[in-house]
Amino acid sequence: MGSLVPTEGTDGSAPVYPMRLQKFLREAGVASRRRSEDLMTAGRVKVNGEVVTTLGSKVDPLVDVVEVDGTRVSWGSAPVYLMLNKPMGYITTMSDPQGRPCVAQLVPQGDFPGLYPVGRLDNMTHGLLLFTTDGSVGHGLLHPSHHVHKTYLARVEGSPTLHSIERLRAGVVLDDGPTAPAQVDQIDVDGESTLLRIAIHEGRTRQVRRMCASIGHECIDLERISFGPLSLGDLALGAWRMLTEKEACSIRLAAGKSMLE
Q: Where are the alpha helices (DSSP H) in the chain?
């Protein structure tokens, strides 16, 4: 690895000092510090062609060649943000020892080491799933204090009464405690089922499905159509796209990050 003396910046700016490898990976937009440590201990990080698993190892950002899963990482690379229209039948994980279909197969994981999904959609739920290499933004979007809303279209059995819908709006009691108030609107009734639009800011496991079941109306189909300021739009099922610069800025703000961070 590079020397332990400062290297002058390529633009003649202040010298760059060797830094811990996990900090380099974080600042290069690969992953959060903790996730970068996981990449290292898993043997997925190389420095100058050699696998480095020792936490605290240092690199010179302007001299050493750092690779994750065989892809070279450039210091100061911009974080990656993309959305996927997740189909049903895929689990929200980047790998599965049981060989089940997972969302990693649908996004360019090889091009962006450290890419991971922000939150989860269960196996039978489809719709908007956000991915990023920016661990701090991902954490901020899921933190309860930021109240980032997620909106779903839920097709449920039967026709919920106004009283049942008001129960969802006020919050219902689940086996892991009462839910926060939700935004609930009835969109369509076809006689045998009803389409509801439900917006929540919590992130419990299978929460919307359990909320609907608690009022006696099981979900037949569940789609997430928005996450914070992001909307699924006309993105095809199973397709992904990079966020626009405006969208990336909007989710950073939703995560509590200033534009200068």
A: 21-27, 33-41, 135-142, 162-170, 207-214, 245-254
